[in-house]
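hey so u asked for the seq, here:
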Amino acid sequence: MPTLTLTNFQITPLDAPLGAVVTGLDAAKPVTPETILQLQQALRDYHILIFKNQTLNDEQFLTFSFNFGSLFVPPDNVPVLASKPGVTPVIIPVANVDGGYTGTGELAFHSDHKWTPYPSSGSLLYALEVPSQGGNTSWLNLNLAYETLDESTKQKIANLQLITYNPFLNQPGAPRSKYRFDQSIPLISPVFPHPLVRTHPENGKKILYLDYATEVEVVGLDPQEGSELIQQLRQHLHQPQFYYQHQWSVGDIVYWDNQSTLHYRQAFDPNQRRVMKRISLAGSRPF
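ran it, structure tokens below
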């Protein structure tokens, strides 16, 4: 059995709407139960944790990640990034090299797997190569976005359910709608309504559970009314006061709470390499 050594690591909150930096911790080595509990609590408090100066192989990355949960596995009939029926990669290469996913373009604010029955609880993204400029990732605090809504809007959306349609069923290059007006479109995959105002399963905080650009539908509302409501909420979401932008360094691992944040990626030069590895952790049914 490996020896567990107590580490003098620090958790330093960012001067930002969310996030904390973890220094003095070697994620390649076994960590104590006390350390895991401190990190879990810090994630609940700060929504994202940034581990600096890490050097891990795949096995070490997995071992560290699984301190916080088990692997996210989607249903076979609900595709997600990199999945194939019956096969869920454990480590997904988020990279613009052969075998990698997500390319080099801008990715609008979103959370992962929201169209599945049990969206992932969080992900860890490990930077191996970064471009000289661009490719920064921003995270947005969905609890703060909810708390800053006016009271009448909070009451209006308190019990609404939202369907997020699976973007991986769209034809590549086809125009993407931000709201589903046409109810007659045949569904290729099951849909899973989730609360528009989600309660965090561990800290009880209220979350405005909405992506910025994915196709959605508010259950039970007239399409015009639903579309106007979502447009209003998305305008509220898209404010710098809610987000932190991270400039990557090689050796960074960012662990984010996928239940209470959105993330966004800047475009970057296709001639530069950006190579990262992602592990996503299992979540529960939103309530």
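The chain has five helices and 17 strands. The mean pLDDT is 94.
lmk if thats what u needed
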